[in-house]
Amino acid sequence: MNYARDASAAEATLLAIRERGGEAVAIQADVSDHDAAGRLVAATVERFSALDILVVNHGIWKGASIDSMTPDQWDEVVNVNLRGAYSICHHAAKVMIPQRRGTMVLLASTSGQRGEAGYSQYSASKGAMLSFTKSLAAELAPHGIRVNGVAPGWVMTDMSRDALAHEPASAYAAIPLGRVASAEEIAGPIAFLASDLASYLCGEILCVNGGAVMAD
Length: 216
Prior knowledge:
CATH architecture: 3-Layer(aba) Sandwich
Strand content: 5-15%
Strand order of the largest sheet: 3-4-5-6
Helix content: 40-55%
Shape: globular
Radius of gyration: 17 Å
Distance between the termini: 32 Å
Number of helices: 7
CATH topology: Rossmann fold
Order of helices and strands: EHEHEHEHHEHHE
CATH superfamily: NAD(P)-binding Rossmann-like Domain
CATH class: Alpha Beta
Low-confidence stretches: none
Number of domains: 1
């Protein structure tokens, strides 16, 4: 399990895993740093002797209008969201290809499917994640590695909690199920894609958004 800053939250997650009989280790790394992403993968393989499943679930969500957005604001979001995905997948693939097995699940967003006013750099990074997922699926399938994606809508997480707190109830009218998702409701589809139940899914994007975006 990777974390960037919040060591206490990582420790709490470790304890929850261990209480349920699992084994886990938390490794600090900013995956937008290519070398740090490599150290994260190396530390995982050193601890567990293999890397079978990769879930690319990091990201930041920051907005700016296109007329006021600075190059630094653009680069910050794209570097974390997209370069980070490239870096961690690059290093993971170097482990999985010789193994001849593995699965990757990449997290995109409905914002990457339909765009989001005032957050064009975020939408661009997540739209690219959709294409990146499909490209890796075609490239890595001959090596026995499945790559799929999940595109969540609104989810109640630390990243979105403040924004959602100020949204009027009428804003949820665009979501047919009438509410935002819990983190667990996104984790379920991720676990499905990572499991043998999805053994013939390759390059698929699961839209997990309460019906807000019904993409082909």
